[in-house]
Predict the structure.
Amino acid sequence: MSQPTGAKPWKRANTDWFMRCRWGLFAHYLADTASNLKPIDLTVDDWNRRVDAFDVDGLARQLAAAHVPYFIITLGQNSGFYISPNRTYDEITGIKPSKCSRRDLIADLAKAVEPYGIRLMVYLPGGAPATDAVAKAKLEEPVDERLSTIQRHWEAVAREWSLRWGKSVHGWWIDGPYNAPAYSHPDAPNYRSFAEALKAGNPDSLVAFNNGLRTPLYSMTEYEDFTPGEIERDMTVAPGNTPDYSRLTNYERYLNGAQLHVLTILGEWWGKGPVRFPDELTIGYTKFMNSKGGVVTWDAPLTYNGQIDEEFRPHVEALGRAIKAVA
């Protein structure tokens, strides 16, 4: 895609540190469950009590013990409950009391993991929470073909978070936006303006725009720094076949200019057990993608108080012993 008229040439962020990490851990910490599409019965007070009980120091020690070089956590998803306050979100939606937590869990977690050299990244859907009708209406309407209302609103929400956290957050994994043509428009709002909002507080932070679960891996836009890489059932090993189907091609470090990266699950579903692979398979697949210059992020469940699920902790530790980050 060509640069917008009059815009400075876009330069992707340096992903060397990310590539050297080789692997990292992802966790869904949500008011409901991953991909839930039904409204939930949870009070704001209950949500705040849950977020307040999250033991960031305990999690940081567990991550360090498992040699986890970076950690990605969900800000929120479909329920409309988030783990960090956001005044812009509250002003746009008008929801009172706010479903954004009083505690800034991201800021506290970033402070806890920093002494161990662990980098914090965050997950955010590409738009309004699917099961919060009030928030959806306020964030999305009026709806036009380009989805310009939600794009502008969501960029403003993301910019507030980014500016507050600054360089303590090292990357964003954006779940969607799925309407690629709307975000590919040469004029803002678009992929570029969204990426600029996400990087407002840290120009060096990494961004990926997930356009759905599918293999082989892909990069949707020049305005992302690493491939979203979401897979579940198919453990992708090659980008496709040669024209005569005589042999497999190989992944390389960059796919359409984006750092090669896979995001998949250690359990049977996002944030849920049981563990689905023996240690050898998890380790072997990670090493395979590393050999192509790629990075693998594995999702594992957290308890309500923010600790790695005990069924998964030995598995994560085995992976950390086998896959050491490169200095």
Q: What stands out?
A: The chain has one domain: 16-322.
